[in-house]
Design brief:
- It contains six helices and five strands.
- By secondary structure, the protein is α/β, with parallel strands linked by helices.
- The protein has one domain: 3-Layer(aba) Sandwich (Ribose 5-phosphate Isomerase B, Chain: A).
- α4 packs parallel to α5.
- It is globular.
- The termini are far apart.
- The structure holds D-ribose (RB5).
Length: 147
């Protein structure tokens, strides 16, 4: 049975190792994770997994997703094509915090070939724990929704 609280996670082959690491980190914190693949380092196209995760996140306000490919770029482009998804590519901590405070990002994208595991773990921790500020930022998100 699906856990509505679960963090939806996905990667392509280039992000697989980091996905597995982050999945273990999150489950170690007692958080539920729903894994949409990849399930190995066999080559797989990032739009396929990006779409899967994005659709699940978009279907449920408050849902959070994490997408990892080689750079994080392809995954963020793919996910942002789904309405109501605000995917933020964050390979450093400042963007991770601001993507939550100002953009209410509901998907975090990272590059498995760009950052190491410890930085990725810290980015995920900050991203999951930083609240949206609302106010003028909500007005801007409302405008995004009308694009
Ligand atoms: C796969 O080689 C690579 O292109 C992909 O993981 C990603 O970095 C695309 O943006």
């Amino acid at each position: 049975m699906e856990n509505p609280e679960a963090i939806i996670i996905g990667s392509d082959h280039a992000g697989y190792a980091l996905k597995e690491f982050i999945k273990a980190y999150l489950t170690g914190l007692g958080l539920a994770v729903e894994d949409c693949g990849a399930m190995s380092e066999a080559s797989i196209d990032y739009p396929d997994i990006g779409l899967k995760v994005a659709q699940k996140v978009a279907a449920d306000a408050g849902r959070r997703g994490i997408l990892i490919c080689g750079t994080g770029i392809g995954m963020s482009i793919a996910a942002n094509r789904v309405k109501n998804v605000r995917a933020a590519l964050c390979n450093e901590l400042f963007s991770a915090a601001l993507s939550r405070r100002h953009n209410d990002a509901n998907i975090l994208a990272m590059g498995g070939r760009v950052i190491g595991t410890e930085l990725a773990k810290e980015i995920v921790r900050v991203w999951l724990n930083t609240p949206f500020e609302g106010g003028r930022h909500q007005r801007r998100i409302d405008k995004l929704d009308r694009i």
